[in-house]
Fold this sequence. Notes:
Blueprint lengths: L9 E3 L23 H30 L2 E6 L3 H4 L5 H21 L4 E7 L6 H4 L3 H8 L10 H11 L11 E3 L1
Parallel strand pairs: 1-2, 2-3, 3-4
Helix pairs in contact: 1-3
Amino acid sequence: STQEYRHIVRIVGNDIPGERKTLIGLTQIKGIGYNFATAILDSLKINLNSNYYIIKGILPSMIKNRSGCIIGISSVVAFTGNPGQANYTASKSAIISMYKSIALEVAQRNIRVNIISPGFIQTPMTDKLKNAQVDAILKKIPMNKLGSPRDVANIAAFLSSDEASYITGQTFHI
């Protein structure tokens, strides 16, 4: 579309926590024995392609205005892996690579592109975990607590502010 989005200066993309399949995110927990080819294509189609098309739609206006900030949401499991989620972690890793490449491409046009990779955040999805699962997760977290949605919002607010005008192409683990 040639429509301009003059009012969009910043955009944050995200999965909807707790949902198995949404318009902008796909989380499937299935082992590698499952039809992996289908699962990986579904994950890439939803998680990666949606980010690509959103960026493709807004980037021309940002380039024209020589200003903008794009913040994507990935997941810490893109770095750590997660049993039963090879398709999901692969798609989240692909998002990180795409954002880093776009950041290099548009940095000289005063457009910043970064990624937030949340770990375990207190959401309806984590509320469904069994106590033993939460205890195992907490043992791996130095602060020994789940993060809050506010923690993610705070880093997004910082990254979209003028105080972060030098930061681009980075992934922030929360």
